[in-house]
């Protein structure tokens, strides 16, 4: 197949998708508003001006003619946008078929609620798509609420690569209780919530240490907060690191904590589960599909700093028992529905069926 993806070239999701289908033997092209080199993938950059992670990128829609021109040059058999707003809407304006849109989270869970214009444009984009994928059932439901028939939507979790994210049975540091977050430093991931909770448990867990893996526009704000709360010596900023390194850090961590306000499918949580790291997550649909509170991890309410602090202390006090109970459950869950290659086989098969129907 000749596949053309339309997505952020710097996104780990885009890179994984492109690399996977190339390795399966398909010819892969990527059209993007951002520049990046992806081995063995032809990246075509469309200059649409600055792109903000906070949204409001409606001006990129005006570049659809440039994208359409590239499609005529590439002549793909399938055209697929990752992210339903900026890329999905612009792609729909190109009028190419078969056309696929994948929603990633904020694009269908938050943007339509914040802007009637985005909601209208999303309805238009979905009406032009031949197939829509959502990363979780609650996203599927959000798309249906926009008038899209359920027959047109499939829930396809991205999942993890078990060759990378796996438990290596490392002996954890007995002199430190290590907590790791792999979420980026943007408002939706609510990292200050975690930092404030750690400040409250510092006296009860004197050997506490926090790993922050990621990057984002709020890093300076987080550094100031950590300094103010007296946690500077207890926090390590890793920046963005390769997946293999993330796996190593998770395997050396006692706890993984994700306190995001909203998520599509929390792949970061899947990675931690696969590595055998005990997890605490906010009580939102993206996490409740993976975690049963008190069984294979813990769920906490959004912005409940005291509740999070209590769960961290409880995990510290009962760690060995909790981890042992959660480990086999999490390994089974990931094997059944969290493996990337299995879920991408669904996508490959659907691509082929759409091309045959063309």
- CATH top level assignment of the largest domain: Alpha Beta
Average of the residue pLDDT scores: 93
Give the termini separation: 14 Å
Structural class by secondary-structure content: alpha/beta
Low-confidence sequence ranges? none
Which percent band covers the strand fraction? Answer: 15-25%
Overall number of structural domains: 2
CATH topology of the largest domain: Rossmann fold
CA radius of gyration is: 21 Å
CATH architectural category of the largest domain: 3-Layer(aba) Sandwich
Helix content: 40-55%
Structure description:
Helix 3 packs across helix 6 and helix 8 crosses helix 13. The chain has a 7-stranded parallel sheet with strand order 3-2-1-4-5-6-7, sandwiched between helices. Strands 10-9-8-11-12-13 form a 6-stranded parallel sheet, with helices on both faces. It has 2 domains: 2-159 and 339-357, Glycogen Phosphorylase B (Rossmann fold, 3-Layer(aba) Sandwich), CATH 3.40.50.2000; 177-337, Rossmann fold. The chain starts with a strand and ends with a helix. It is of the alpha/beta class and 358 residues long. The longest helix has 19 residues, at 319-337. The protein is built from 15 helices and 13 strands. The model has no long low-confidence stretch (mean pLDDT 93).
């Amino acid at each position: 197949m000749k596949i053309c993806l339309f997505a952020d070239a710097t996104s780990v999701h885009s890179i994984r998708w492109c690399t996977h289908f190339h390795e399966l033997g398909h010819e892969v092209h990527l059209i993007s508003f951002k520049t990046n080199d992806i081995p063995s993938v032809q990246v075509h950059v469309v200059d649409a001006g600055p792109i903000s992670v906070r949204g409001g990128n409606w001006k990129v829609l005006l570049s659809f003619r440039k994208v359409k021109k590239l499609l005529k040059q590439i002549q793909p058999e399938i055209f697929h946008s990752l992210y339903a707003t900026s890329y999905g809407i612009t792609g729909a304006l190109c009028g190419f078929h078969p056309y696929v849109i994948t929603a990633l989270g904020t694009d269908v869970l938050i943007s339509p609620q914040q802007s009637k214009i985005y909601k209208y444009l999303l309805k238009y984009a979905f009406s032009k798509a031949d197939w829509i994928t959502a990363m979780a059932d609650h996203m599927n439901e959000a798309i249906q609420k926009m008038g899209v028939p359920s027959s047109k939507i499939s829930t396809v979790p991205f999942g993890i690569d078990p060759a990378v994210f796996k438990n290596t049975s490392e002996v954890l540091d007995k002199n430190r209780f290590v907590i790791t977050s792999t979420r980026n430093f943007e408002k939706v991931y609510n990292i200050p919530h975690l930092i404030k909770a750690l400040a409250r448990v510092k006296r009860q867990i004197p050997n506490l240490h926090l790993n922050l893996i990621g990057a984002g526009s709020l890093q300076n704000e987080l550094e100031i907060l950590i300094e103010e709360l007296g946690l500077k010596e207890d926090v390590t900023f890793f920046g963005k690191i390769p997946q293999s390194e993330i796996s190593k850090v998770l395997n050396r961590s006692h706890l993984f904590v994700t306190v995001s306000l909203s998520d599509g499918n929390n792949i970061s949580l899947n990675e931690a589960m696969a590595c055998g790291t005990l997890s605490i997550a906010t009580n939102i649909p993206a996490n409740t599909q993976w975690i049963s509170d008190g069984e294979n991890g813990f769920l906490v309410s959004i912005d409940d700093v005291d509740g999070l602090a209590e769960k961290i202390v409880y995990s510290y006090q009962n760690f060995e028992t909790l981890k042992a109970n959660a480990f086999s459950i999490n390994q089974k869950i990931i094997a059944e529905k969290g493996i990337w290659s299995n879920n991408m086989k669904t996508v490959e098969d659907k691509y082929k069926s759409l091309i045959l129907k063309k």
